[in-house]
Amino acid sequence: MRTCKPRSPTHSSGTTRNRFTLQFTAVLALAVTVPLAIFASAKPQPSAPAQEKQKKPAELHWDPPQVDDPVPFLSTTPPCNLHEVLQQAGRRAAQTVDLLQNFNAHEHLRFEQTDRLGMSEMFITENFDYLVDFGEPSGPLKVQETRTPLAGSDNAHLSTTVDKGLPVLALIFYPVMQGDYEMRCEGLTRWNNQPAWVVYFRQVDGMRPRTLSMGTEANVFPVSLKGRAWITADSGQIMHLETNLVKGVPIIELLANAVSIDYAPVAFASKNIELWLPKSAVAYTDYGKRRTIIEHTFSDIQLFSVQTQQVIEKPKETK
């Protein structure tokens, strides 16, 4: 765990934290080293009529976002004020941390590993009880994730091989983290029929990365990120975020990693506000000899306020 002193003793929401500690350990999908039989226990198959009623989910396809590619339909009118956009996004990130101690959700996960030719070697689906904890409000900020397989799980070991760190990626815009990145506003577009500023970010050269670490159980390597965020023009909420690695990690044969996350508003009735939390995400990891795709879908989110009792809401549908 890395401890970093903030550049400012307080952030924009007014809550003081003496230290800023950000823990984001992405455990790479090294399932190739685990015998397939561990994950391959058969589950009872539904009857034919039940299968017909179920809508078959779309197949997983290798389609990682490329954050250096042009964004279509960008407009430079009106002009973007990057300082104001980052201030708004920073306030939203700080608000989430201040008001939300932890949240719980159901997570549906699909995992596929393919060989270098794209042939599937392993395909797994599983459901988890997913918990994100931001730490005590009076202590340092610690972002920790826990996945607990639901009752009857045949793939409990999957929780130790999937990627971690989805909630913390939006904290790139947390006030004391913004200085780690070079940022520019590329223009105005629409996301889910809402006006959105597109902000490009890239880890500052020569500065030790503190957002993301990748590795194995034995070794962890900080990695630099670049990416884009689609931020609501009126409120500063992050609606969509994409990241790539600036460069791979040859020592663990990691060539590339890309993540695409969609966020949705969750009602926080006791404060009469909405907090935007991950709704779905897809992570693509390329090791050269194999690739993995991990799709996360979250539902039944339960919010836990620092100062109030639990409030249970489902994410609003975004159009």
Can you tell me about this structure?
With 319 residues, the chain is mainly β. Helix content is 9%, strand content 42%. Strand 4 and strand 5 form a beta hairpin. The longest helix has 18 residues, at 82-99. It is globular, with a radius of gyration of 20 Å. The model is unreliable at 1-48 and 306-313 (pLDDT under 50).
> Which percent range describes the beta-strand content?
35-45%
Query: Oligomeric form of this entry?
Result: single chain
Helical fraction: under 10%
What gyration radius follows from the Cα positions, in whole Å?
Answer: 20 Å
Count of helices?
A: 3
CATH fold call: outer membrane lipoprotein receptor (LolB), chain A
CATH first level: Mainly Beta
Q: Which second-level CATH architecture applies?
A: Clam
Could you give the count of β-strands? Answer: 16
Unreliable spans are: 1-48, 306-313
Element-by-element helix/strand order:
EEEHHEEEHEEEEEEEEEE
Q: Report the structural category.
A: mainly beta
In short:
This protein is mainly beta and 319 residues long. The protein has helices at residues 48-53, 82-99, 166-169, and strands spanning 3-4, 20-21, 25-27, 100-115, 120-133, 144-149, 181-191, 194-203, 212-215, 220-223, 225-232, 238-245, 256-268, 273-286, 290-305, 311-312.
